[in-house]
Write a structure and sequence with these properties.
alpha/beta; Transcription Regulator spoIIAA; globular; anti-sigma factor antagonist activity; STAS_dom_sf; STAS_dom
């Protein structure tokens, strides 16, 4: 995993590998560490994440709840077909912004737009610095 802080209060976290029972706690801890402030918007680049199981989904739900409680958002980008399907089946895509590219997710985070052009309504489930960690 790695992350980079961008102007405008957005942190992009790149996740590599499967997020499952073995690795979900690591992702949870990494998301907490990567955020500069509670109001930081998060964009998760899932380009290299072929699998996200229920424990991984729970990490994202918890991150979403934390973000919305602090006036921020969490967005995911570049989902593999299997991960996209999990988001659709669980209807998590109705609460967490799902975007085809990281660039789309960044634009949405900075402008408050949801995929499809709507704006974030706050409902839900209740300086450029780079940092890295080998996966």
């Amino acid at each position: 995993m790695s992350h980079r802080h961008l102007p405008g209060g957005v942190t992009v976290v790149s996740v590599a590998g499967e997020v499952d029972l073995r690795t979900a706690d690591r992702l949870h801890a990494y998301l907490q560490q990567a955020r500069r402030s509670p109001a930081e918007h998060l964009v998760l680049d899932l380009t290299d994440t072929p699998l996200l199981d229920s424990t991984g989904l729970q990490v994202l739900v918890n991150a979403h709840l934390y973000a919305t409680a602090h006036g921020a958002t969490i967005r995911v980008a570049a989902l593999a077909p299997m991960v996209q399907r999990v988001f659709a089946i669980t209807r998590l895509d109705a609460h967490i912004g799902v975007h085809p590219t990281v660039e789309d997710a960044l634009l949405a985070a900075l402008t408050g737009r949801r995929p499809g052009g709507g704006s974030d309504d706050g409902n839900g489930l209740g300086g450029n610095t780079a940092h890295g960690e080998s996966a």
